[in-house]
Amino acid sequence: MSEHSPVTTLAEDDCWQMLHDQEFGRLAFHLADEVHLVPINYAIDADRRIVFRTAEGSKLLGLTMNADVAFEIDEFTEEVARSVVVRGRARQLEGHEEDETELLPLRPWVNTAKFNVIVIEVDEITGRQFGLTRPWLHMRPPHEE
User: Fold this and answer.
1) Do the Cβ atoms of 88 and 122 come closer than 8 Å?
2) Per-residue pLDDT averaged across 116-138, rounded?
3) Is 144 inside a domain boundary?
4) Where do the H-state alpha helices sit in 28-92?
5) Does 107 reside within a domain?
6) How does residue 127 score in pLDDT terms, banded at 50, 70 and 90?
7) Domain with 66 in it: what CATH number?
8) Per the structure, how many domains does the chain have?
9) Which of 49, 76, 111, 142 has the most C-beta neighbours closer than 10 Å?
10) DSSP 3-state assignment of 76?
11) Residue 2 forms part of a structural domain
12) Pairwise CA distance, residues 118 & 20, whole Å
């Protein structure tokens, strides 16, 4: 890409920082012969793993049947959009490993029982930043207060 490209690659440390700064993303997983995409809230542990809780159901079943997953977060302003994509393998934590996650800032967004702690062991992390050219913004009427 040229130095004037509106798309740039984020450094790995910038991708991890963005993951640390957020708490909401989307998890893609297989369930039988279908791909599912679901929102989750998460935290990053000291081993650079994505940690989340889930209840019994299709998500847990899918992760048990096929551990290969993708995870994505993004953010944007009027000038810039950034996206981080992770590929890895999910597994359920138990015992001491599960207990260690209690100190993470992992807060449920809804009041439902989610007793299963899952980690995504990251195999690949990539990120991109997009300089937004939004020509329609100048066409908006002035905001009146």
Assistant:
1) yes
2) 88
3) no
4) 58-65
5) yes
6) very high
7) 2.30.110.10
8) 1
9) 49
10) strand
11) no
12) 17
Which is it for the CA torsion 106, 110, 114, 120, positive or negative? Answer: negative
Per-residue pLDDT at 142 exceeds 90: no
> What is d(CA 52, CA 27) in angstroms, rounded to the nearest whole number?
10
What pLDDT is attached to residue 132? Answer: 85
Structure tokens at 41: 């809230």
Structural domain boundaries, residue 58? 7-139
User: Residue 29 domain-assigned?
Assistant: yes
State residue 96 phi and psi, 5-degree precision.
-60, -40
Does the structure show a pLDDT above 90 at 26?
A: yes
The position carrying tokens 């995409």 is: 37
DSSP track, 82-145:
EEEEEEEEEEE--HHHHHHGGGS----SSS----EEEEEEEEEEEEEEEE---GGGGGSPPPP-
CA distance 45 to 100: 9
Instruction: Return d(Cα 104, Cα 46) in angstroms, integer.
Output: 9
Q: Are 61 and 74 in contact (CB under 8 A)?
A: no
pLDDT range class, residue 125, cuts 50, 70, 90 = very high
